[in-house]
Design a protein that fits this description.
218 residues, mainly beta, seven-stranded mixed sheet, Thrombin, subunit H, six-stranded antiparallel sheet, Phosphorylase Kinase, domain 1, 2 domains, 11% helix
């Protein structure tokens, strides 16, 4: 198999037959200074990046081949090749990933001037956006933006919402009319240096001890 520049979305999720633990967070790139009396000033030097840590389950003797496949493919990635990733533990919006939502084309309806709020269209009537719900938008050429809603927002009868605060804030290239992915939010990720610990193999039994850290590539 030739190693492509970007592995497909299911590359990692198909390899991981178990879903033991995934920790998703944000790596902020802020410069801070303090006054000594508890006050701090901060400046965002660059956009925050999503990170994820995946604990890879021990694999029994029938799955040692899968462990070797995971090891080989991540060794081949290096630190420059990217792949698409969605959190295998995330189960969609709190309101539910309904069949009606799955068949809907949800788009960006509006972004406020400060680019801190977003409104949607194309939702099922009455659908409720909840704090902590994630979404992603593919924009430009193969770039992926992912954010979380910070407040509740409900679609009215025509499928539009009034708007809700989000974070991280959308890039300038993200525009009205772009398609929104609410059910399987996706980022493009790399494995940073020392971000992958391969399996240890026990003779005749299991492969164990592997772990993976991902960093968003914008």
């Amino acid at each position: 198999m030739a190693v492509s520049s970007i592995y497909p979305l299911d590359f990692l999720n198909d390899l991981l037959i178990t879903k033991e633990a995934v920790t998703v967070g944000l790596q902020r790139n802020d410069e801070m200074s303090g006054s000594g009396d508890g006050r701090y000033w901060a400046a965002e030097l660059a956009r925050p990046l999503w990170t994820a840590t995946v604990n890879l389950s021990a694999l029994g003797r029938n799955c040692r081949g899968r462990a070797r496949e995971i090891d080989a493919k991540f060794r081949a990635l290096g630190v420059n090749r990217a792949f698409l990733w969605s959190d295998p533990i995330y189960d969609g919006p709190r309101f539910g990933a309904t069949a009606e939502l799955a068949s809907s084309t949800v788009t960006v309806r509006a972004i406020n001037t400060g680019r801190t709020r977003i409104a949607l269209s194309g939702l099922p009537a009455g659908f409720v956006i909840s704090p902590g719900d994630r979404f992603s938008v593919e924009w430009a050429t193969g770039r992926h933006y992912m954010a979380e809603f910070l407040e509740t927002d409900t679609a009215i009868s025509n499928g539009t919402t009034a708007g809700a605060d989000i974070y991280p804030y959308p890039p300038l290239g993200l525009a009205i009319g772009m398609t929104v992915n609410l059910t399987r939010p996706t980022i493009k990720a790399i494995v940073p240096p020392d971000g992958f610990t391969p399996y240890s193999y026990v003779a005749g039994f299991v492969a164990q001890g592997a772990s993976l850290t991902l960093l968003q590539k914008v």
